[in-house]
Amino acid sequence: MGYAPPRSLSMVTNVKTQDGYNLSMQRIPEGRIGGNISGNKKQPVLIQHGVLVDGMTWLLNSPQQNLPMILADNGFDVWLANTRGTRFCRHHVSLHPSQPEFWDWSWDELVSYDLPAVFDFVFNHTAQKIHYIGHSLGTLIGLASFSEGHQEDQLKSAAFLSPIAYLTHMKTALGVVAARAFVGEITTLFGVAEFNPKGQQASIFLKALCNYPGVDCYDLVTAITGKNCCLNASTVDLFLQNEPQSTATKNMVHLAQTVRDGVIAKYNYGRPDYNLMHYGEARPPIYNISNIPKDLPILISYGGQDALSDVEDVGQLLDNLKYHDVNKLSIQYIKDYAHADFIMGVNAKDIVYNQVVSFFKNQQ
Q1: 339 catalytically annotated
Q2: I need a surface site. Which of 53, 132, 278, 340 has the fewest CB within 10 A?
């Protein structure tokens, strides 16, 4: 069964971004055992989900098996982020989700606005440096942000699960077809700024993609993520009841550009004069991952069956980190794991989460 922490353990708070979005965060300040065993101030951990889902995906397994509760039980102060556009983050100071302007953003804005807002909030609240965990798109925005020098004074360490940075070798048939479909003028797709996978226009779009040769959408989770080894059927059912969540169509276009162009760059407006207007140059600026501080403790955990975070693409990411302090970089490769195993795998506690806990404890 899925699990949401009891009210006494979890607190919901709202964070405003500089561009006016209200982001909901959930905090689990203590574990089920309660009390602060060590008597020290607890280390904050910020957990960032991927695209088309929200922070609830981390809580679908039982408290013994899900990452936020395992961290809380191990004495960490856990904060779950939710990005703009997902179900708890559909408020803005002046815009409404029915207006296209509400959806005029890509993952660049998550790097520039959402991540800084939640980091500032947690840092100001706890007065301590923060351990960061990202999964999927949560890794991309973390990598891009840290490469730009953001959060440097607030960040203690970073764990990247199923890292998405380079996407050139992505093997999911649905993903490849979708990436081709999304590249192009945003308006020619459906003329819809919100990409809601449960909405009518997106459903028509997905049905069309599922008719492509080689694309089997009978099992949608596998069609998108690759063959996960270790998911419990009831957790997958819960996942499908809760997810997917909306994102901006522009965000999907930006991810498609990342697949096509083989670089981690800012959003490409498709015309040199538009890019010039936004960036002062004809091509979008590149996020230089090798600029991430060499002494930042980093854990990277990736799977051999992951169709989104492909082994070759992770290899390219690691190549960008080849000058990183060797004793500050931990790498874990899990042969049987695919993309969703990292958030919902029944054995993720033993294989991944215990590693994450010891990695963070080593940074004390």
Answers
A1: yes
A2: 278
Catalytic residue (choose from 24, 92, 339, 341): 339
Which residues, 6 or more positions from 9, have their beta carbon under 8 angstroms from its beta carbon?
A: 28, 29, 30, 31, 32, 72
The predicted model gives 140-166 an average pLDDT of 94
Strand partners, 136: 163
Interhelix angle 137-147/115-126, rounded to 10 degrees, is 80
In eight-state DSSP terms, residue 286 is B
d(CA 149, CA 84) in angstroms, rounded, equals: 22
Nearest CA to 239 among 30, 25, 66?
A: 66
pLDDT, averaged across the chain: 87
**Any catalytic annotation for residue 136?**
yes
Question: Helix (H, G, I), strand (E, B), or coil: what is residue 141?
Answer: helix
What is the model's pLDDT at position 185? 46
Distance CA 105, CA 98 (A): 15
Residue 34 backbone class (left: φ over 0; alpha: ψ -120 to 50; beta: rest):
left
Catalytic residue (choose from 54, 73, 77, 306): 306
Residues 199, 205, 210, 214, Cα dihedral to 10°: -140
**What pLDDT, on the 0 to 100 scale, is given for residue 136?**
92
Q: For the chain, how far is it from start to end, CA to CA, in angstroms?
A: 34
Residues 15, 23 contacting (CB under 8 angstroms): yes
Residue 322's nearest CA partner among 350, 347, 292 is 292
* Band of pLDDT at residue 34, cut at 50, 70 and 90: low
Side-chain half-sphere CA neighbours of 185 within 13 A: 5
Q: Which one, of 306, 351, 302, lies nearest residue 65 by Cα?
A: 351
24, 112, 136, 301: which is the annotated catalytic residue? Answer: 136
